[in-house]
Amino acid sequence: MRFRERIFRLKNLPAGELNTALRRCLSTFDITLLGVGHMIGAGIYVLTGSVVRNTAGPSIVISFLLAGFASLLSALCYAEFGARFPKAGSAYTYTYVGVGEIWAFIIGWNIILEHMLGAAAVARSWSGYLDSLMGNVISNSTIARVGNLRETSSFFGDYPDLLAFILIVIVAIFVAMGSKVSTNFNSFLTILNMGVIVIVVGYGITFADFNLWSGNNPVTGVSNFFPYGVSGMFAGAASCFFAYIGFDGLATAGEEAKNPSKSIPIATFASMSIVTFSYVLMSASLTLMIPYDQVHPTAAFSDAFALKGADFARYIVSLGALFGMTTSLVGGMFALPRCVFAMAEDGLIFGSLATINPKTQVPIQALLIFGSITAVIALLFDIETLVEFLSIGTLLAYSIVSACVIVLRYQPNYNVDEGHFDNGGKLRFSIPFLKFLDDLEPGQSIYYGISVMISSFFMTSLGFTYELWNGSFCSQLFLVFNILISILSFLFICAHYQNSTFLDFKVPMVPFIPSLSLLINTLMMVHLAPITWVRLFVWMAIGFAIYFSYGIRNSKEEVKNAEKFSKSSTYDSVVSEAADKP
Q1: Is residue 578 part of a domain?
Q2: Membrane-spanning residues where (predicted)?
Q3: Within this chain, do residues 337 and 419 fall inside the same structural domain, yes or no?
Q4: By C-alpha distance, which of 370, 361, 276, 297 is closest to 332?
Q5: For residue 340, which of 327, 325, 351 has the smallest C-alpha distance?
Q6: For residues 91 and 399, is the Cβ–Cβ distance under 8 A?
């Protein structure tokens, strides 16, 4: 096979294939609570304090809504993939079956990092809440004995967090006992946490002061609701994307769902609705209780109640925070080894990581190795560093999924009964000065359209980030030009016929909804710190080194005489077979 065919080959998955080495024992209710537990602790207790204090202020309410809306658009795309490939198993599997190996590797490699950093951030925040309850005894005694890590690098936390390290080890041991044990424990703590959230919102709103949201600050003159401007609100939304990583973990749980094609879409939409509603109410309650610049960055809610003299509520919210972060940590550690297992089973990373414990049916070696790395990350690194790095990987994965939905909708579908391809991927009309497009295979020009559209979205987002409309004439012209290219590339995609593939669920208004998802994701990625992009490139460099030295040669699709699944070869082979028939 040619190099291009090898990296874009598709995973061979027979229609309706549900076989797995893992145990199918999870109901829709189990998976819904797994998603709620994974998201609710991370979003409320890890993010809210630091984003309110340093990034968005009270406008975090809109940040959560925007991040939730963008996640919902991505969830629609996930649901279509689940309908296409009912075996399920995360964005990695969906992309591998649908659009090619290299894209699947990029997503899978980022999802692994996503779950490691997410679990580390939650463990470190869990430790911070307990430390706050104990009057900072843990942090002060650790710094006194070990010293301050920040003197070495700003990437590190204030001190080596031994409690976070031990917590991840304990949760990893618990997860190793089996999926049903993990999910039952998660469901119990999630229900308790939801009860605590109801109490916190109900009691916290009694301290509400709406003057904290209205008007301008008399000293600085800036808006009380947008103290960091609209740009801060968008930057907050980019960080808040971390709060929604749990819904990708739901797709991973599809490998152990009793009925993944039904359970995954229902659990995704149900858990996201519950979680977004909770985020908005909790962040509104916090920013109406105390001024944004008095919010504690790591123990926001317990500290806010302490400032109001409500010590009883302080202990209740701290207990809820520990419950919520424990469920979030269980969710992250549950999904992590299963993502590694999926890639290792396909041969894209080292095959030994696909080892399954015969008794618990858990990928034990993947859990041991990547759980240990996660524990070390939690020991050393700062929460804000982890969250920023985490968000860009999540946004990148969701963006690729959205782009893949557009690609798949505009590929030719072979109608077996009629013995020919439909019009999928064909232009509705010839475009002047672009006659070469007529010679391309159906669906190929979509790749050009999406590439141009994503590039112009990125440039447009940069323009809005740096407010080029207030700059020189050349800056304004640059912004207008990229907006025009974005619109033209979108219209170019619309100028193609969609295929007639029947699915149980399809994203409505394609290509508009996936394109809108791409635009919002790009806008939020651009608002992340530049050093975050550097970290992403380093992580991807490590990943590509593994893939091109090991994965490309050991992929299951590399097997001699395996069917070639690149789009061009599939199209050519089916056409030639159809031509040979009488």
Answers
A1: no
A2: 21-47, 59-79, 91-112, 162-178, 185-205, 225-245, 266-292, 312-341, 362-383, 389-408, 445-466, 478-497, 509-526, 532-550
A3: no
A4: 370
A5: 351
A6: no
Which residues are 333's β-sheet partners?
none
Instruction: Give per-residue burial for 194-209: e unless 16+ CB within 10 Å, then b.
Output: bebbeebbebbeebee
- Specify the residue for token string 């009380």: 224
Position 350 in a domain: yes
Rounded CA-CA distance 517/453 in Å is: 12
- For 420, the enclosing helix (H) or strand (E) is strand 420-421
Domain end point (choices 327, 361, 393): 393
CA distance 573 to 381: 52
CB 356 within 8 A of CB 364: yes
HSE toward the beta carbon, residue 242, CA cutoff 13 A: 36
Evaluate the omega torsion of the peptide bond into residue 432 and state whether it is cis, within 30 degrees of 0. Answer: no
Q: What angle do CA 185, 186, 192 make, to 5 degrees?
A: 95
Asked whether residue 576 is domain-assigned, the answer is no
Q: How far apart are CA 337 and CA 252, in angstroms?
A: 10
Same domain, 260 and 311: yes
The number of beta carbons lying within 10 Å of the beta carbon of residue 547 is 24
Residues 195, 314, single domain; the answer is yes
Of 359, 393, 427, the one marking the end of a domain is 393
Quote the CA–CA distance of 546 and 196 in Å, as a whole number. Answer: 45
Cα separation, 48 vs 60, whole angstroms: 8
Digit-coded pLDDT (tens) for 176-197: 887 677 777 777 888 888 888 8
* Amino acid in the structure at residue 13: L
Polymer length in residues for the chain? 582
pLDDT digits (tens, 9 = 90+) for 77-123: 877 876 676 554 567 887 887 778 998 999 889 888 888 988 898 88
pTM of the model: 0.78
Task: Tell me: do 517 and 481 sit in the same domain.
Answer: yes
Q: Residue 289 corresponds to which tokens in the numbers above?
A: 């209780």
Q: Mapping DSSP to helix (H, G, I), strand (E, B) and coil, where does residue 257 land? A: strand
Query: 383 and 509 share a domain?
Result: no
- CA gap 506, 510 in Å, rounded: 9
Residue 427 has phi, psi (to 5 degrees) of -70, 140
Instruction: Examine the domain organization and report whether 204 and 353 are in the same domain.
Output: yes
Q: Which of 153, 154, 167, 155 is CA-nearest to residue 124?
A: 167
**Are 197 and 318 within one domain?**
yes
Q: pLDDT confidence of 39, banded at 50, 70, 90?
A: confident
Model pLDDT, residue 246 = 64
Domain that residue 292 falls in:
26-393
455 and 523 part of one domain: yes
Number of Cα atoms under 13 Å in the Cβ half of residue 258: 8
Cα separation of 324 and 413, whole Å?
46
Q: What is the mean pLDDT of the chain?
A: 82
Per the structure block, which two tokens stand in for 396? 């990148």
* Count: domains in the chain: 2
Count of CB atoms situated within 10 Å of the CB of 31: 27
* Alpha-carbon gap, residue 521 to 518, rounded angstroms: 5
Residue 344: pLDDT band (50, 70, 90) is very high
